[in-house]
Amino acid sequence: MENTPIIDIKTYGGQQVAIVDGRIVAAGTDTEEVLQAAQKEVPGATWQDILLVSVPKSLNVIYSV
Fold this sequence. Notes:
By secondary structure, this protein is of the alpha+beta class. It has one domain (9-54). It has two helices and three strands, in the order H-E-E-H-E. It has helices at residues 9-12, 31-41, and strands at residues 16-20, 23-28, 51-54. Strands 2-1-3 form a three-stranded antiparallel β-sheet. The longest helix has 11 residues, at 31-41.
């Protein structure tokens, strides 16, 4: 995906983030509300223009063998 911004995990950890044209336009914990907020922020954006990303709460990785 082109123009994907760096997402600060301290700010957005545990949230859904909506990205349009390389910038974060909405964030929150409820997917439907985040998508609606993104469409209000960028009225011309279609569902195909909005990249929805789930941001992990932390960068801890657990490996299981």
